[in-house]
Design brief:
By secondary structure, the protein is an alpha/beta fold. The model has no long low-confidence stretch (mean pLDDT 95). The N and C termini lie far apart (57 Å). The protein binds ligand LLP. Keywords: Amino-acid biosynthesis, Decarboxylase, Lyase, Lysine biosynthesis, Pyridoxal phosphate.
């Protein structure tokens, strides 16, 4: 039971003192993921889509504690790879709640999933190409299949994540019925699937509606074919993908989830009795449940701008560099006055609320110009030692982290009912070379 369940949690809503304590205890950069907020987001989705199958797109945040929270909340798991299937199984999702969406699946992934399916015959594989179906059959797989369709219409916060309409994903809409009917001769075809893209804005609702309507029409034709020679397919569900956007700008209004749910139900109708609607949000579940904490180590005034150097960069949070994505940043303070000298023995700087807002670029430690968390943004005048909270970082944050520039990946703390536990330890310099040292041992024998 969720008491007050606001549709969005802003970076300003986090308890600053708590975040400062966590940064002191665990060091920075540090991801903090609040499981209570993850649960609230699940509750809101289930309330908005009471009759639908709600599947969590695991790729948005794969942490064990998050997966367990989502499992307990009652969502299924939508997995994009063997690795995600493996994580979902380890987190206790049983086969009937596993959906593997295969996009040009590597042989190793198909081998793994075909093997998992022997013990978990209730799992479903979503395939978006006839070759994928053939490759499943070659592995003796004859279980549950969902056919992914390219709906010919897409949406998303950036062209790089607008999947609907991109030829890479799904079988072309006008071929979908034929592919599904052919697949039904070899597999148990239980669903059809399409995904518009990620980060769908409220003003892109028309594209979403169009996609859903096309899927509804296709479902009706498969269940009750207009071509009298075609065998009907007993579909269980129509999966219209994920992509529900969350506000990143502090002032942006939250997505009206009930309006999206309403539009979806209307556009897909009428679905025959027994056929469910399915949705698979990732971002919506975890985005505003996470912040990235980073420490200011350098403040450099230049004639053009003031550059605030921090210890988190594009290796920790790739989204700004990759998509020019906006993340809200809040100065939590704690630093020393600029004229306080080296070593942090200066006087404590005033609380951020008492400082003047200054336009700054917040830049990370990576040797690329694109490595900035924001540009020309007004922040409460940062000083060395301040802690910054980068908001709405719970989705595609840690997941897209890399070791580029030989930077160990950050640590992550999970908050559960207020209690903090290390969910992922900080990587060490030793972690950076472990695979090459192991390769050397394989090659040359133990040192
Ligand atoms: N279903 C499928 C088949 C997907 O490909 C995706 C996301 C989702 C569901 C979940 O979409 P969501 O509800 O999270 O928007 N790295 C990018 C996002 C890539 C999303 C890829 N697919 C970013 O940071 O914005």
């Amino acid at each position: 039971p969720v008491g007050e369940n606001p549709p969005v949690r802003r970076v300003s809503d986090w308890d600053a003192a708590r975040l400062r304590d966590l940064a002191t205890e665990h060091g920075t950069p540090l991801y903090v993921q609040d499981l209570d907020r993850v649960r609230e987001n699940c509750e809101r989705l289930l309330a908005a889509f009471p009759d639908a199958d709600v599947r969590y797109a695991v790729k948005a945040h794969t942490g064990r504690a998050v997966l367990e929270a989502v499992r307990d909340a009652g969502l299924d798991a939508e997995c994009a790879s063997a690795g995600e299937v493996d994580r979902a199984l380890a987190a206790g999702f049983d086969g009937s709640r596993l959906h593997y969406t295969a996009v040009n699946p590597p042989a190793r992934d198909l081998d793994y999933v075909a093997e998992v399916a022997e013990a978990n015959p209730d799992l479903t594989v979503t395939a978006g190409a006839v070759d994928t179906l053939d490759r499943l059959a070659e592995r003796g797989y004859d279980g549950r299949v969902c056919v992914r369709v390219n709906p010919g219409v897409g949406a998303g916060h950036h062209e790089k994540v607008t999947t609907g309409g991109a030829a890479k994903f799904g079988v072309p809409h006008d071929r979908a019925a034929a592919v599904a009917r052919e697949a039904a001769e070899r597999f148990d075809v239980v669903g059809i699937h399409a995904h518009a893209g990620s980060g769908i804005d409220p003003d892109q609702l028309d594209s979403h509606r169009e996609l859903v309507a096309r899927m509804g029409e296709l479902a009706r034709d498969l269940i009750d074919p207009s071509d009298r020679d075609a065998d009907p397919i007993d579909l269980e569900y129509v999966d219209v993908g994920g992509g529900f956007g969350v506000p990143y700008e502090e002032a942006a209004p939250p997505l009206d989830l009930s309006a999206v749910a309403e539009a979806t139900r209307e556009a897909v109708a009428p679905l025959p009795a027994g056929v469910d609607l399915a949705v698979e949000p990732g971002r919506y579940v975890v985005a505003d449940a996470g912040v990235l904490l980073t420490r200011v180590n350098t403040v450099k005034p230049t004639p053009d701008e003031t550059v605030v150097g921090v210890d988190a960069g594009m290796t920790d949070l790739l989204r700004p560099a990759m998509y020019d994505a906006y993340h809200p940043i809040r100065n939590l303070g704690g630093g020393r006055d600029r004229d306080g000298g080296e070593g942090g023995d200066g006087t404590a700087a005033p609380a951020p609320a008492e400082r003047e807002a200054t336009p700054v670029t917040v830049a990370g430690p990576i040797c690329e110009t694109g490595d900035a968390l924001c540009r020309n943004r007004a922040l409460a005048d940062p000083v060395r030692g301040d802690l910054l909270a980068v908001g709405v970082a719970g989705a595609y944050g840690y997941e897209m982290a890399s070791q580029y520039n030989s930077r160990p990946r950050p640590a992550e703390v999970a908050l559960d009912d207020g209690t903090a536990t290390t969910a992922r330890r900080r990587e060490t310099l030793g972690d950076l070379t472990v695979v090459e040292r192991e390769a050397a041992t394989d090659r040359d024998g133990p040192a």
